[in-house]
């Protein structure tokens, strides 16, 4: 008879294997997020019409960009959409990215994330029953039969979950074609991405692209998508020249920031004088840093498009991050003038103003930060900068409250309560600042208690 420790180890191994099934269809959270006004606006330009076509208010969906070289996208918590940088850099044209966004919109509209819990529940019961029988068999002296039952339980869970996932993926494809048709766009981009990864299903899980593991393919699914795409009245519609240009600029910018400079120079050699190539090289030179060469590239772009806010932003960034904050201000200021509704640009400008340590710029920095925070409530860096600016003005209560907001948005409830209590003492009782301090104290204190209970 197998001894008890061996049985426990075997059962634990089986449970871990079963959990791996769940993880295989769950996106990784190890990636870091990226914020960039230009890229975010391009992605929003792709997504908002599709969301509207699906009957989903665009503002109800938050879109996040993850620094991950793999081609993937996914949704979670029902209405949060995540896009890997790998999808943007490796896609051949805008329609492919738009197609993936339409597919993920299909998941949101279909409530698929919430329904995945039903799939896990459906898989769990037969899996646990089978594993329980395996445990009994092993305890009764039949380790081989017991192991077979434990393995069988894992396979039952895997088949149930993947069957549910394939149904959802097919439904999301069909929904995507519907949304793209409603917006007068072709679904060929989605079909191209799907076909691109068809061969990867035969690879081991370690070698497969995450898109394949989280978006299981099938011949029937591809055949159905192909048929719907060909029958669309917009099947042969291509992207506009403007769309293609901004897409190539986005790819060049990402490539310059995310890859080693030597790779950027290889992909975008000096002989290539196109705007995307100069954009990529400007970023690569600045990262080395070879500031003069970076400035030469960005100046050539500004000469071509003096009213491009992103060129002004990059020149300001080059100056700021090479220790020339005062020289950065005019370019960050110009970017804000050109795009006044972009909060990240205002935060850049305020940061440069604060970095100069010129007290005469504090008031302007505060105005820009307060404006930015109206739409960037959870931007902890903006709150930190605001706290610094308030402190330099001697407004300690407001500085403490801004610090409390920073900790609160970072889910650091202990420090949030501490700074909110300090702020409460140093602001006018009954004022909006005092009330906000009281709200943070109550909410953060409750969250601390709940965390301790768990």
Provide an overview of this structure:
This protein is mostly helical. The protein has a domain at 4-231. The protein contains 21 helices and 4 strands. The protein has a 4-stranded mixed β-sheet with strand order 1-2-4-3. Helix 17 (362-373) packs antiparallel against helix 18 (380-392). The protein is globular, with a radius of gyration of 27 Å. Residues 10-30 and 160-164 have low confidence and may be disordered.
Structure summarized in a few sentences:
This protein is mainly alpha-helical and 454 residues long. Helix content is 71%, strand content 4%.
Helix content: over 70%
The biggest beta sheet reads: 4 strands, mixed
Estimated share of beta-strand residues: under 5%
Mean pLDDT rating: 85
Total beta strands: 4
Principal-axes geometry comes out as globular
Q: Classify the secondary structure makeup into a structural class.
A: mainly alpha
Low-confidence parts lasting 5 or more residues at pLDDT below 50? 10-30, 160-164
Quaternary assembly: single chain
Question: Strands, helices and their partners?
Answer:
Elements: H1 4-24, E1 32-34, H2 37-53, E2 62-67, E3 73-76, E4 80-84, H3 85-90, H4 94-109, H5 112-139, H6 143-182, H7 188-196, H8 210-214, H9 219-231, H10 241-258, H11 261-267, H12 275-287, H13 291-304, H14 309-321, H15 325-338, H16 343-355, H17 362-373, H18 380-392, H19 396-409, H20 413-426, H21 432-453
Parallel strand pairs: 2-4
Antiparallel strand pairs: 1-2, 3-4
Helix pairs in contact: 1-5, 1-6, 2-4, 4-6, 4-7, 5-6, 6-9, 7-9, 10-12, 11-12, 12-13, 13-14, 14-15, 15-16, 16-17, 16-18, 17-18, 18-19, 19-20, 19-21, 20-21
């Amino acid at each position: 008879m197998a001894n008890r420790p061996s049985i426990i180890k075997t059962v634990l191994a089986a449970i871990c294997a079963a959990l791996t099934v769940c993880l295989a269809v769950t996106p990784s959270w190890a990636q870091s997020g990226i914020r960039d006004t230009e890229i975010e606006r391009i992605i929003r330009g792709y997504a908002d019409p599709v969301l509207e076509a699906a009957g989903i208010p665009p503002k109800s969906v938050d879109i996040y960009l993850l620094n991950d070289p793999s081609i993937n996208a996914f949704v979670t918590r029902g209405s949060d959409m995540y896009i890997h940088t790998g999808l943007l850099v490796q896609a051949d044209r805008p329609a492919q990215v738009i197609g993936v966004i339409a597919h993920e919109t299909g998941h949101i509209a279909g409530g698929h994330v919430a329904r995945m819990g039903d799939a896990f529940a459906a898989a769990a019961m037969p899996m646990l029953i089978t594993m329980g029988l395996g445990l009994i068999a092993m305890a009764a002296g039949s380790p081989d039969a017991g192991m077979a039952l434990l393995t069988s339980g894992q396979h039952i869970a895997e088949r149930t979950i993947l069957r549910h996932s394939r149904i959802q993926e097919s439904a999301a494809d069909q929904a995507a074609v519907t949304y793209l048709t409603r917006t007068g766009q072709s679904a060929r981009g989605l079909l191209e991405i799907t076909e691109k990864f068809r061969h990867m299903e035969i690879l081991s899980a370690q070698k497969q692209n995450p898109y394949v593991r989280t978006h299981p393919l099938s011949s029937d699914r591809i055949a159905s998508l192909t048929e719907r795409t060909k029958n669309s009245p917009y099947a042969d519609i291509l992207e506009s020249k403007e769309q293609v240009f901004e897409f190539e600029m986005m790819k060049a910018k990402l490539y310059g920031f995310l890859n080693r400079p030597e790779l950027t120079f290889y992909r975008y050699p000096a002989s290539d004088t196109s705007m995307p190539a100069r954009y990529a090289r400007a970023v690569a030179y600045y990262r080395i840093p070879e500031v003069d060469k970076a400035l030469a590239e960005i100046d050539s772009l500004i000469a071509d498009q003096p009213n491009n806010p992103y060129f002004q932003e990059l020149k300001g960034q080059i100056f700021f991050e090479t220790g020339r904050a005062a020289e950065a201000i005019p370019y960050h200021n110009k970017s804000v003038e050109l795009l006044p509704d972009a909060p990240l640009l205002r935060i850049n400008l305020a940061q440069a103003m604060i970095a100069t340590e010129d007290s005469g710029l504090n008031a302007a920095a505060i105005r820009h930060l307060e404006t930015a925070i109206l739409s960037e409530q959870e931007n902890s860096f903006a709150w930190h900068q605001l706290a610094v600016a308030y402190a330099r003005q001697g407004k300690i209560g407001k500085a403490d409250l801004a610090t409390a907001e920073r900790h609160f948005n970072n889910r650091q409830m202990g420090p949030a309560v501490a700074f909110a209590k300090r702020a409460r003492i140093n602001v006018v009782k009954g004022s909006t600042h005092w009330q906000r301090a009281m709200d943070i104290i109550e909410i953060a204190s409750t969250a601390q208690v709940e965390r301790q209970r768990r």
